[in-house]
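Re: [help] complex structure
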Amino acid sequence: MSDKNILLMAHLMRRAGFGASKDDLIEISKRSYEAQVDLILDSEPKYEVSKHLMHRYQPDYGSPMGNSSNGASWLYKMIWSDSPFKEKISLFWHGIFATGYAKLANGIVLHDQIKMFSKLGLGNYRNLLIELSKDPAMIIWLDNCESRKGAINENYGRELLELFSMGTGNYTEKDIKEAARAFTGWTIANKEYMTEKSQRDSVWPYGRLAMHFEYKEEDHDNDEKIFLGEKGNFNGEDIIDIICKQKATSRFIARHMYSFFVEDEPPVPEWPYKEPNNPEAIDALSEVYFNSGYNIKEMLRFLFKSDFFKTEKVWNKRVKSPIELVAGTLRLTKEFYRPEKFQSATNSQTSFMGQHAMNPPSVEGWHWGTEWLDSGTVVERVNFSSSKLGNINNSGIRKIIDNVRAKTNEIYSPEILIDLLLEELGEIIVSQNTKETLIDFAESRLKDKELLTDENLSELLKLVGAMPEYQRA
Amino acid sequence: MLDTNQKSLVVIQLSGGNDAMNTIVPYTNGIYHDSRSAIHLTESEVIDINGSLGFHPEMGEIKKLWDSNNVAVINGIGYPVPNRSHFRSMDIWHTAESESIAPDGWLGRTIREIDPSHNNVVTAVNFGRGLPRALVCKDVPVASVGDLETYGLMPDIKGKDQRENALNYFSRMYGPNQGRDAILDALSENGVSAMIGADILSGANSKYSSSVEYADNPISNNLKDIAKVIFADIGTKIYYAQHGSFDTHAGELFNHAKLWKELSDAVGDFYRDLKEHGRENDVTVLLFSEFGRRIEDNGSGTDHGSGGVAFVLGGSVEGGFYGEQPSLEISEQVEGDMKYNNDFRSTYATLLDQWLGIDSVPILGKNFEQFSFIKKG
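Output below.
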């Protein structure tokens, strides 16, 4: 069993990234834990995954038609970025501000939205909400372009409060209407034409175009509003200012963070009826929210350095989302050095498992935790990880096998083999039952060192990829 | 009356927007020929039905079923305020909700009604990878089968003995366990039911025998697999498969013909197979697409439109035309498209109430007028 520090680093890398192999963990562990947290939060990528590279392999990357290539290119960044945390943050916000292709029929605005999350997702929450309210994809997704003075569409006002900031039970129906009034006039330029273009949905040239935000003074309702007890001629920014001041907002964001980075909380609709797993942690995060001036990065710095995050009690207490499972596995196997065509096929694996990036099932986004698992998705998940780990031709797996062989030069037993393999794959901790099962398999197939053939190791790795622990993070 | 338990529904999704006008062709209508200067079908090509409408030339097998009164053609099917985005329109058909974005699918809700306590992990089987939204519903297990012959856990492991061996280890890892938590419970429960499902389905594969020789293409393979599962009598009520892409913006004459040839032949073989096994009255098939296409062609194909055609076929189907053939007169068009005259949920309601014997109102949210394309008693 590896030392405690490496195990803790492995936990950190699973949560603040998509996992790390033993080789990576040895490098990382040269720093202190605190220094590693700061590095993850503060460093910019040394080299961005270049968009020229993406365009070479996926010509419709970032294009209006490019729904699947946008998903694929995002996955590619998760696999190859030297700062996967950036992508993890975008994924975090995409889960909350889930916006989907089904209604937009336009890839580029979604692509731009995800880029916006990665740029602003660690900053000030107020700024993020303002940009979100101006985001063309969001404006169409929640119909704010249909809302004007005297004829409001409440959709955005409602979801801003319910899904993006405070959660149900903390405001009235009147507040929703007042918020919606304040956001009248926040629309996209040339809306009728854009909607028509999207609907025609044609492969012919100019079938779809990028969109941008426009504030239409003449559609804005500038009269007095009363929102959450405050009175004024509010515009959208004022509403967000008031929202950000609310205790409920701080707790809502804190709970989302806890669920995404620490351990699975029940799905959001159950929050009003169920206490958080760890109320003290939510209190503490909510305090950091106010003390730091709504700063997301400082909340996360606090979170990663807290005992409630570091404790072994929460290790592996999350079900990997399909995107985390696929991205994490491919980071390990080091497949797809270049974003080839086949890589987009791998992207569709996540939708087989129930998570189609940029196409959530509803405005609520995905339900996470054990809700990822059903008999259909478990087959897809197990088969994916089993076949990827079992493919010894991939350089990442090759390296792991080489390491295992080198480390068993002196002394070998099936137990040692299993321990080593689980360490090399990123310090995976397994139950006694799983371990005994794997050792039994090794006893039957890899009893002696001479039996460490590629074929036998591949069979063992297929079983390791199929074990229940591999589905957790 | 048939034993309700044997009845099943096969849904085939024609993805991409099937051109209704070149499927059930108004070949005597001048407006049809004028609007379709590039891609019309002529009187000598179509398979005549009634002197004014004809099947697409490649639909010979479906025409045979029509002649034996087993095909309901639902013309002018759609929903209010047509949406011409593939994704949104398909979503509307999947969720049976045309105004807001619904979280689950109409068949998912149906499966939950049929088997609320999930006694059968194969109540619904989807042929293809990844669940179409139509089948999604919280806590409803659905097996998604790419290929029945290789379906199951760890298909990568070659060799029957080796795979069985690996599955033994798999079931040990997912079996009764110490120190369980909610996540391991969920993994175990679903891992085990996946194994059971795979086991049941592989039995269906090995028991099958038939003199019908299906063509070798995805939709024929899917319908053959569906026949295998039907004959195995494992309690599956809903089957789902997809065929396409019908998104014929270009090269429509060639592509559309190929797609219908494959589908029509596959359906013909499927019915021969059902008949050979005495099951033709137990199975009803729905063919639908997310929308029809524009009345006017674009020089080599057609763009997205509205007002489509759906088909319901089977031994228990009362054949004929349902819905009305939409008028092609300019004044009757909707932005250059055929206007729908019957809500697709009327077809769903008919299938639910009259075929599966399930109250359609809770599933569809309200009462929709029904057709009479299911034979009585």
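Strands of chain A lie at 186-188, 213-215, 225-227, 230-232.
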